[in-house]
Amino acid sequence: MTAASSVRVAIQRTKVLPRWVRRADAAAGRAVNRRHAHPLADRFWSRLTGFADRGVLWWTLAGVLAVTRRRRAAARGVLSLLAASALTNLIAKEVFGGDRPLLADVPIARRLPKPPITPSFPSGHSASAAAFATGVAIEQPVIGAAIAPLALGVGYSRLHTGAHWLSDVVGGLALGVGVAGLGALVAPRRGEPVPEPPSGVDRALPASPDGEGVFLVANRASGTAVVRADPLRVVAERLPAARVHVLQDDEEPGAVVRAALRHRRGRPRILGVCGGDGTVAAVAHEARAAGLPLLVVPGGTFNHFARTAGAASAELAVSALQRGEGVRADVAELSFGDRPPVTVLNTASVGIYPDFVAAREELRDRWGKWPAALIAAARVLSRSEPVEVVVAGRRARVWTLFVGVGANDPGTAAPLQRRSLDGGVLDVRILHAGSRARAAASLAFGRRVSRVLRGLRLLPERIEAFTSASLDVVVRPRSGQPPGFAHDGEVALAAPAEAQTAYAGSGYRTLLRIVPQALDVYRPSSARRDSRVPARPHRA
Predict the structure, then answer these.
(1) According to a count of CB atoms within 10 Å of the terminal CB, is the N or C end of the chain lower?
(2) What backbone phi and psi angles, to 5 degrees, belong to 212?
(3) What is d(CA 9, CA 120) in angstroms, rounded to the nearest whole number?
(4) How far apart are CA 208 and CA 376, in angstroms?
């Protein structure tokens, strides 16, 4: 870089920054641009800075953290990123501004395909990177420390590609750390909650040391969004005599179980299921009808029911079966018109949540579960309207009516996971019509994220909550949006179609009632609740 070029560089900076900062920027720019780098290194830094555009890199890492059950760290990282990005782009750049480095001084191989044209100070990429890494570190220090070099790398990539000055990067990093730190003051980190012990009274169930008499239905599509060991491998190794049926694309779990029960020879005496909550609920319905105990092998994304039961892994569930340990659980029945009731294990709902589930399932095959959920939430936010319901004789316009089986966490807007297997109550949450954004915030956030959203005043303002043994609901169809009832992550598609015809004028009536101690489920006994290691280790 020539002396004239250095003068050119210096005068491009805004007068808002001190002269010594401008001199330091010019010196750092000369040092970086003069440094010879291998073409592969130039390509690496260019691609890294491109991957960080619009926070794609950090959203991807947040998804990985979420599916590996570090949702609190993912949530704090994302919220810190959003706050830092908004502060940088909407306020800081407008206040400080400044021109970016001259492309003539940057080696051609390093230049970005589309040079940025927004004001230079501070660096938005650096602010987002630092905010995300710091937010994650507040909840998970070890993981945050592992992400920190990547965040610093993104900051350097802005220098290497000539997109920013040194002061832009340093300012962005400082702003990101400050925003995340402020967030920790507003919503302090809390220690991991101590898991509640499995609820319900221990019950002796038929034992099967090798899987004899077990018929297990497996839905491999349920847990495709989670990276983990194959639960069916545990079943094959420890229960070699069990019959395992892997569902095909066109098979319905209830129909498969009924077909197996019709065989007099080899009729199962224990029903098993490996899949998500919807698959588990379908097989649980058949187990109730046949009077058989249920083995739940976690194989879905969330496994709400299995976790509440205390069988949070395939090893724990299989060990309970081999020892004959279990519990009797409450369920709920959902009845629509003259149709036979269906069994509900976790939640049932009407309103924008069924809209969200239906849109997510429509998009999942094309985009994958997590991207489909984000797209579906955006669609719901822009298109859905409140639904009119009559609950226990009272009429209201609501975004969503949630009904949880058993008591749920009082700190959440929506009941997502029951806290007990008994108790004999339905936990009802009514989200009255109000802000669309606040309604969307209730779609899929649990206890940990809800605390942050509440601190930011993003949760719905009007949430009515009560418990009851039964609930009589009349749902009136919305214009162009038939209301469907979702239960355990599945949408009852027949209900909306019928609601648009015979029930178009008066609405359709749905009855939910609790059925106490209706289902025998295998789970480790209370005496073993402190044992996190299964009796027989899984052989890798």
Answers:
(1) C
(2) -60, 130
(3) 13
(4) 43
